[in-house]
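Much of our argument rests on the idea that a fold can be written as discrete symbols. In the encoding step, the backbone of a single protein was reduced to a row of integers, each denoting a local shape. This step matters because it turns folding into a mapping between discrete strings. For completeness, the protein is quoted in full, as a sequence line and a line of structure tokens:
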Amino acid sequence: MVAAVIAAVSQEELEAAHCWLDHDRVPGRPELTEFRRAVRYHHAKWRDANGYPIGTHRTRPGAPPRLVGSHLDLEFARESGASFLTAKAVTAARDRTSYVEPH
């Protein structure tokens, strides 16, 4: 197992980046909670540094969507393939999802 050093991120920083999500809290596991929040913040900073549009999440039907900094805008992600690591991965994913097999 590879250990990673994750810097703690304050609630204010997470809220400013639209990354404070209650479901990141893991009861009885503060180190895991801190890790999840730090990774979400890191994803938001990556998205922002690349100039990619922020994504949203709808918590319940009829409710307005909320911004989630660690998510890409869905339509942008579909068009750009920005969530994939390489152009070959984008091509492979598009090829595999472009054909629906019978049955």
Observations:
- The first helix runs from residue 11 to 16.
- The chain has a mean pLDDT of 90.
